[in-house]
Design goal:
Blueprint (H helix, E strand, L loop, with lengths): L3 E3 L11 H9 L3 E2 L7 H8 L4 E4 L8 H5 L6 E4 L9 H6 L3 E3 L6 H17 L1 H9 L15 E5 L3 H12 L3 E5 L11 E2 L2 H7 L2 E4 L13 H6 L5 E4 L8 H10 L4 E4 L19 E3 L8 H19 L6 E3 L6
Parallel strand pairs: 1-2, 1-3, 3-4, 4-5, 6-7, 6-9, 7-8, 9-10, 10-11, 11-12
Antiparallel strand pairs: 5-13
Length: 320
């Protein structure tokens, strides 16, 4: 059997999973429940390994890592995002990269719905006021009949669009790769989506193409009454421009699960805004989604070893 290393299960999620117990029944694994902390430490942990199962997006695999781990054949990512991996470098060094698409789509879409409703109903603020003896009323906005603008129609975006339609919202969408019209969502130009949506929700992968995708000019096109939802990646939004828009009331609120720097530093400007609902990059972290994703990351290993690779992002078997 090839050497398999899990270099970064911190805080631990893999160790307690049924998927991991089944993996150990088949083969030994070199397992670490702390973050590597540095590139040199990561390389030390995975030196000589043929297969790495990566848990945390804070662990970065760049040119130097691939260059200094010549035995590496497969990097199996838990999660959909690949922004912590230099995919071109992986390809140059003959390393196949896989991920676990779709397994968290329902969980993330439900979380986006919760953020939207919490922001629209000002639930954190109202809850705090009631606990302190207040009785604030008349501060909620209903979503029925409002327009939901979904940016990105991958697995999460499609699921959230369905949930929005399910509570009576008009759904419009923009996506980089227009899908089959049979999905049933009205596709519009980005400017139209920004100008006409009561809620704008981001469902894009972070890449060079999407970094800073929603900047000052895009935010200025949104309605003053609009709510921004981001469960994708923090850097897709220009955070300073978003802060200015929220502070000045150019948009009415936001529900955010992702940030430029994570964990969000104590005392960050976002934590002082009453019109923002914040969660700790936890949209896809439910027992159901965790187990499904961890199992798929291991299934990708066995399928690669059986010469039938699945969920390939780059390398042998990648979709063209």
């Amino acid at each position: 059997m090839p050497r398999i290393v899990i270099p970064d299960d911190a805080p631990p999620v893999m160790a307690s999973s049924a998927a991991y117990r089944k993996l150990l029944d088949r083969t030994p694994v070199d397992y670490y429940d702390t973050l590597p902390g540095s590139e040199d430490s990561l390389i030390e942990r995975i030196a000589g390994a043929e297969i790495v199962i990566n848990i945390r997006s804070s662990t970065r695999f760049g040119e130097s890592v691939f260059q200094r781990t010549p035995n590496l054949q497969l990097l199996s990512l838990w999660g959909t995002g690949t922004d912590n991996v230099d995919l071109a470098a992986a390809a140059r060094h003959g390393v196949t990269v896989t991920n676990t698409p779709g397994v968290s789509a329902i969980s993330i879409a439900e979380h986006a719905l919760a953020l939207m409703l919490a922001a629209a109903r000002r639930i954190p603020h109202v809850d705090r006021e009631v606990r302190q003896g207040g009785w604030p009323r008349g501060q909620a906005v209903q979503m029925y009949g409002k327009t939901l603008g979904v940016i990105g129609l991958g697995a999460v975006g499609r699921q959230f669009a369905r949930l929005g339609a399910g509570i009576g919202m008009r759904v419009i969408a923009w996506t980089m790769h227009p899908p089959d019209p049979a999905l049933g969502f009205e596709l519009v130009e980005l400017d139209e989506l920004l100008r006409s949506s009561d809620v704008v929700s981001l469902h894009l992968r972070l890449s060079d193409e999407t970094r800073g995708f929603l900047g000052k000019s895009e935010l200025e096109k949104m309605k003053p009454s609009a709510i921004l939802i981001n469960t994708a990646r923090g850097p897709i939004v220009d955070q300073q421009a978003m802060l200015e828009a929220l502070t000045a009331g150019r948009i009415t609120g936001a529900g955010l699960d992702v940030f430029d720097v994570e964990p969000l530093p104590g005392g960050h400007a976002l934590t002082h805004l009453e019109n923002v609902v914040l969660t700790p990059h936890s949209a896809g972290v439910t027992p159901e989604a965790l187990e499904a994703g961890l199992q798929l990351s291991i299934d990708n290993v066995w399928n690669f070893l059986s010469a039938h690779p699945t969920n390939v992002v780059t390398g042998a078997g990648a979709a063209r």
